[in-house]
User: What shape does this take?
Amino acid sequence: MRVTEIIQAAKKPLFTFELVPPLKGRTLEPILETIRTLMEFDPSYINVTNHQAEVVYLEREDGLLQRKTVRKRPGTTALAALIQHTFNVPTVAHVICGGMSREQIEDTLIELHFLGIDNILALRGDPPSGEKRFIPMSDGHTYSSQLVKQIADLNHGRYLDDQYQDGEATHFSIGVAGYPEKHAEAMNMAVDLANLKKKVDAGAEYVVTQMFFDNEKYFAFVKACRAIGITVPIIPGLKPLASKRDLSLIPQTFGVDLPEELTAELEGGASNAEIAEIGVRWCIAQSKELYASGVPSIHYYTLGKAQNVARIVRAVY
Assistant: This one.
């Protein structure tokens, strides 16, 4: 079932969550256990992230360094198919511009279509670890709006090769990312909103936001989107703080502010366990307010950890 159809049929805000594929060489069991734990709350769909190759430097026998790209988290398509067919819940496969040509993207989309996966979150993707800026592949996409258009074209039976223009049309529901505190690379909020509108105009049917810790920023973001003609559902994305590492990593990596009230609770050298407890309480309060406001859904970034999200959803839903 397509995400847009699920949202339209919903009588109350949906519960959804996101998973990260395991590192290469690791077992799937922790991911499957996370899903089993959260299935109690009847998720409407589950997202599976995608990660491009990272740049590493290996020392050669002559002492020089050799540059190599390594994909540390393969398996998005396979994991999305496994979850959908094992747990009978729709999955949303993340498809990224990074590290892929247009032909490779088309092949990935065809495979997802064959597997019965009807939902895509279209993302540019971050620069790989070790690189400061995003560089597209040769014959790849520079912007996620271009990726959205390619997916929308395939939904109309338009393939990259002209000889397949009478090919079967896909029927993907296309989601994209939005940034209540603007994308880190955007010059200002107005530019970022204009970029989001390009994605919607290209065929995106809903928006999932970057994590935020101040609901007023989400409400202001939605209002600003509506003011420029973005009418699609805008789904808030939340992540409970879980450790001391989050306190520096989240603002630095995602350009997200932690509210003063929250940081006041975290001051005083709180342990990881205390930070996780504060994170759960804060996320419950956020979720309750968002739920009461009638948002389409609340989407949780789990990073593969179920227990804190389970506590939050149990308190809200």
